[in-house]
Amino acid sequence: MNWRKFFMFSFIFLSVISFGVPEINLSHLEFLRDEFIIESETKIGYWIYAEKFGDTYVHTEAKGEGVTCVDDVARVAVLYTELYKLYPNEFYLQRAKEALDFVMALQDSDGDFYNFIFEDGSINKQGVTSRKSANWWAARGFWAISNALEVFNEDRDFQKKLENSAKLAYSFLSRSLDENYFLNKNSDVSSVFLLGVIEYYKYTGDESVKELAIKIGDSILNTQIKEGLLKGAFNEGTDYQLWHSWGSRQGEALIELYRITGNTKYLDSAISLADEFYPVLLSLGPVYEIGKYIKMYPQIAYAVEPIISTLVKLYSVTQEEKYAYIAALFGGFFERNNHLASPMYGPNGEGYDSLHSIYINSNAGAESTICALLSLVRLKTLPSQVQPLTSSKIIGGRETLLFESEKMDAGIYYFELDNTNNIRIKTEESIRIRQKIENFYPGEYEVYIAGSFDSNTHVKASSGDNSIDKNLDSNDGIMYIGDLNMEENQIILYLKPENGFIYVDQVILKPVDPAFIFEFDQSYYEFSKGKIEKTTYEAATEESLYTQTAEVEGIFINNSFLLDIEELFNNDGIVSFSERKSGNFDNYDGIIGAKYPVEELIKHLTNNMFFYEKENVYFKFKIDGNDNLILTSQVINLKDIEKTFDYMYIVGGSDHGNYTGKIMILYQDGSSQEVEIAFSDWCQSPIYGETVLLELGYRYDSLGITENINPQMYMLKIPLKSVPVQSIFLPQIPTMHIFAISLK
């Protein structure tokens, strides 16, 4: 890898680019919109979930909670209010009004709010996520109402209704604050309330409301972390430092507090958040949570939107270009600036529910859709010249790096695996673990280690000729080792416990001077020190698209030709009772996962063969060791097969949802055939019309515990040309598995 900067990237340069932030498409949000009965009155709300079945979305309730809720409908009110403020349009005003009317219908006489409505129209008054408790939905409802007060000046009757509701909610919630002026003892939900308080002050001009806003803001300031991996973030934990991505609006609220007070300490706090902590999230993605370790997934729109809102408002206040740049780069999460380089925003305005290590949950409920749309609304307020950066993709740089210890090279050293929370190395002996770093950027990095150390443990971290040492006291969580000047693309950690076990979870490298290389419009740029400069960049050589090729033979049983594809098997998804704590069918980036039980499968097999009578076809199964292949673009070449076949039968299944792709069949005459391959989730009902070949009585979970879930194996039937098959090209779908292929 090499790079060379050669000119400044500026708003002027961007002005020649024609594309920008994706269009705000309200179609899916309109699909979620529906009439609901709330205790005999018809109100307009939004379905909380929309599950995807094939190409179709279906309204879905939250089991045990309800079908729609204040928390989401208040989000809708904020979205349409913000749209109306930017683009005065009667449609936006009407949608905001009906959403606010719904929110106020769930407000009780004391000023607090219930959250969920059951399908029969009754209010869920007892559920922990719905009962009155001065909680998230109350704070968000108050914010939505206060934020809309000024836009209904020409509808005085409705404005008066909003005034009464806001006054009642403010009175109740302000009385519900603890000694630190927090709701529920935390700064996250309190930051949502603070946004409402500020809007309420702007409308009423009541100085006592402003005084309360300052008290809440000062308490939020006191939770800001001053050093370490989380420097700049706001502590949301009690027993230990904790930050979670969802609902973390502290920076946004403090910017708004600065606007009404002029006190720069609030602005400085938001700047520290953006300068110190957001580069960590830009490196790793909008991780779900950082506490005793970094929980990478799921990554959700509700995590990205508060970041974008904070950065856009920070730019509007400071006019510093770097905050516009970084806001747009975070906005790229919805296009392709995520580790899967896949859209998180659908063609009809769907906000997909979550991004995981190897798949996207393409369900699109209200929260995800609204947060995606609100993110786009915020981004649309950036200068038009910078908006195109949302289409860029970060491909390298001096970034924060995260390594899971169990995947690092431990050489000859012995250790066990502990699965208490995140998987960790467990040892009472000295151990050396190392990691090579692809696309490495030299520089000074802060070194952290996550784990549990019950005794004095000596740690030495080294890279090339440079090293740092530290003795760790008893501790549990993320610990700072020191700053290491890294000149080589390898990190080595040597750990020596004095006595007792140690548990090593993650190794984290945080650059002192972060820099990001991104690809944009077929060119490369470096973003560092608040500036963007064009650069040359040579990425590491990519592997061939087809990662594994096998020359495959087979056996004939009657009219069936059973392909021997064992050479391609790369996954152990079927285990016996005695081995139930091993195996891993459904956790691609982990060490262990859930799996099929051998004992149930062999009930259907004879000499590892299965005969499917309806199609008069046989399949060969493998039940020990690796027993299936995860689709990673393999090529299956059929060896010395001159016979023609009518059909190809594939046995498989998907994990973490339902997936489709395309295989290509190459024939010996040079012709080809592209065919869709589709497998439903192994533990759900088939949705693509595939045959349920086998249904087993239970499965083992990741800990080896028997679960009363009926995993299935599906069969696809593919018509073939009357020409001998030469090769089968499989797609890259790491959530899809194949157990057997037969031709007939």
Summarize the structure.
With 744 residues, this protein is an alpha+beta fold. It contains 14 helices and 44 strands.
Give an account of the 3D structure:
The chain is built from 14 helices and 44 strands. With 744 residues, the chain is an alpha+beta fold. Strands 28, 29, 34, 36, 39, 42 and 44 form a seven-stranded antiparallel beta sheet that branches. The two termini are 49 Å apart.
Which keywords apply here?
744 residues, seven-stranded antiparallel β-sheet, 44 strands, 31% strand
Contiguous helical run count: 14
Oligomerization category of the chains in this entry: single chain
Helix content: 25-40%
Low-confidence stretches: 1-18
Q: What is the strand content?
A: 25-35%
Tell me how many strands there are.
Answer: 44
Radius of gyration over alpha carbons? Answer: 28 Å
The class by helix and strand makeup works out as alpha+beta
Mean pLDDT: 92
| Shape, principal axes of CA atoms | globular
N/C terminus separation: 49 Å
Largest sheet: 7 strands, antiparallel
